[in-house]
Specification:
This protein has 320 residues and is an alpha/beta fold. It has two domains: 2-39 and 49-112, Alpha-Beta Plaits; 153-317, Rossmann fold. It has helices at 12-24, 40-45, 73-90, 105-111, 158-170, 186-193, 207-218, 257-267, 287-295, and strands at residues 2-11, 31-35, 60-67, 98-104, 119-121, 125-128, 142-145, 176-180, 198-203, 226-230, 248-254, 271-283, 299-307, 310-317. A hairpin with a 3-residue loop joins strand 5 and strand 6. The longest helix has 18 residues, at 73-90.
Amino acid sequence: MKWIRYSLRTVSDAADIIAASLYDIGIEGVEIEENRPPSKEDLEQMFEDFIPEYDGSDNTAVVHFYLEPGPETEGMVAKVSEMIEDLRRTADIGEGTVTVSETEDVDWINSWKQYFHKFTVDGDILIIPSWEEEEDTGRYSLVLHIDPGTAFGTGMHETTRLAIRQLRKYLKPKDAVLDIGTGSGILGITALKSGASFVKGVDIDPNAVNAVNDNLVSNEIEGAAFEMLIGNLITDDGFMEPSDLEKYDIVTANILADVLTAIAPKAGKYMKDGALIVTSGILENKTSEVMDAFAANGFKPVETISEGEWVSVTFRKKEA
């Protein structure tokens, strides 16, 4: 199948905001290609055999996204144009121009591999894809073998790293975990390898099923420990089981802020009294909206952490 590839030229500081806005209007499969020097934090995460090239010319970026040709394509392109003009009013997005090309589906699925290399989270968690060789893993407290495939979630993005930190901090042995917006399964697999007894993953993207199954095999985790469901908890949660009610000790939700506010009225019924939900994927200017939504639905903030322009808030369900 051929896909239409759209390339939006912008500046590095706006790339994450544009990617988040594309997800907001329903576009998945976003790639960010940047031309800026690595930060001190970036360099600390990198191994000596992976230092990105940088020609020193500018701080531009290109945000690539893909649409399947069809009757809905024109309407989605119009939404992108409106989104660009809205962002121009509040942020410096640079050129904001879009070019179009055609690509084969196989190219889209595999091209991102050149950008995904092994790296660490907080120095003691090694995340490594299947196409790279392992090194001495003894110095890490946790090793995760993760291939994102066409599902989002490698751990390289700030939002995922924030969620991993909080999940590892608050998870207790034998906890049951509900992972909303599972993607590659990285948070659920982190939970299981950190002592959780069971994970149920929920995602609206069918690609998540194969991504999770492949990553479970790579991490030598029995499939029965991680149940993966496709469905939308916001619009229709009928695919959940009665046994899921008030079952979970920790919920993870690494999604965008607007989706988190919609999940706030739903999440509590699957959580035990006093259970925690780790939210991430929140841009700084959206934090108050998420805080208000969860407060209105019986949650109390426990901790807020940030990295760059992204925020993670951990909430506790108030006891009845």
